[in-house]
């Protein structure tokens, strides 16, 4: 144990607790629709925002003073020790990381690669002593200045090569730690202006890059899922991985629709002009739903504020779509969220996660109750019932000439039917 979280006891389930350092709704062993709550939610703590982020924003620098901040292996190991202390306090089953969050940057690729291998040794030892499992690993291919014009889509082939080599190392590390997924996060896979951009070339390079990752996954026997995280607007003006629909089209174009699924973030959905449940439902309809980042944005700000979830109705609608799709397999609920830069105390980090886990637990239970009740699904089936008739089914195989003749013959002249939206919203409000 490190001393950073001294005095903070492990969080337990206590529905009557008066402290904010308790779970009032998250009981890992509670059965929800025949499955343990922990196994439904599959919570993961994110290494980057919880331990690597320094508290800066576009208008101000570092506000956090963590004892593990540094640029050597000793600091990286101290960070890992603090991380596993938090994991022990929270009792969540998973964690996840970027490479740059867990290892110091070296003076060369070889040195960075060696640093990653050394810290993976240390993390592996911590996991062997009873720590949580790895939900997913990923590579940061966006922060360093070398990636200012992208990674897979960079006009410089040396950057493409450096990026591919980095992903190999990170996928190897994820495989070694028994990770259940590997995420490709294209933070700068896009462009600022068409004046200096070859769109077709860049997308072809991105397609080849991802195919190479999938080929290597199979070569090393990695059984986890490869995930892409759609990311609109920030930081690149025109992202090639803007939303579910954009990424799905990209995967189909390059023959990857059966190999890659999606890691979806609530905040990114909002930036793309969608609701989170829309992105989840669309991914599920395409058999591409993999995992989620359950964080939110400030609706008064036009950028990705990465805040912990606190809106039970929003969360409930998200888990409704996840449960309707059959729930997570290799995926889970990662908190890609960070403290506000004024929240300086160790207990703030604990309370933020505990509160978020409670919000998700409440949302999950509400979603499960809505599904069990069936009112929403009954209304949906009723709305589309005409397509279950022989006449409705026949439309999908008939020629347009035959349809035309039928409309004339039967005098079809339909009147609009209510969608009953407000009544359906009232049903949701019964549960949340």
UniProtKB/TrEMBL annotation:
It catalyses: alpha-D-xylose = alpha-D-xylulofuranose. PROSITE patterns: XYLOSE_ISOMERASE. It is an enzyme of class 5 (isomerase). Its EC number is 5.3.1.5. The active site is at 98, 101. Transmembrane segments: none annotated. InterPro entries: Xyl_isomerase-like_sf, Xylose_isom_bac, Xylose_isomerase. Belongs to the xylose isomerase family. This is Xylose isomerase. It comes from Tropicimonas omnivorans.
